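Recall the central idea of this unit: under ordinary conditions, the amino acid sequence of a chain determines the structure it adopts. In this exercise we apply that idea directly, starting from the sequence alone.
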Amino acid sequence: MFVHASEAPSDAEWEELLSLFRAASEEGRLRVLVYTEGGAPNARQRALLNEILAGLKPRVAVLTTSAAARAVGVAISWFNPDLRVFAGDELGRGLDHLDVNQGERRILTQALKELRGLTTKSSYPPG
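Accordingly, the structure predicted from this sequence is:
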């Protein structure tokens, strides 16, 4: 799970993400939940990601209300057809796409709520 604020990730932050992808890709099946308030990787960062994934097609659900982040998600999906972009309040649909079980849903929902608290004062998901 990755949570981005409204700013794009720094190169150092992106390198951390890439190191996680390197390690996880060696273990097999990848499923990734991304929530962004607008921050998205730049063209160089996207190229590095495509290099790391090199033919892997992890299942990815991106949740965002940002048109710019949505456009970046669509661009990345050209290289990974298993990436889908959902509205920021469509966590359930995103988790359905990731094919997570009920226990994983609870864990991911709580983790997202906590991580979002680090980027904003609003709560997500509602309730």
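Residues 22 and 52 are 6 Å apart (CA to CA).
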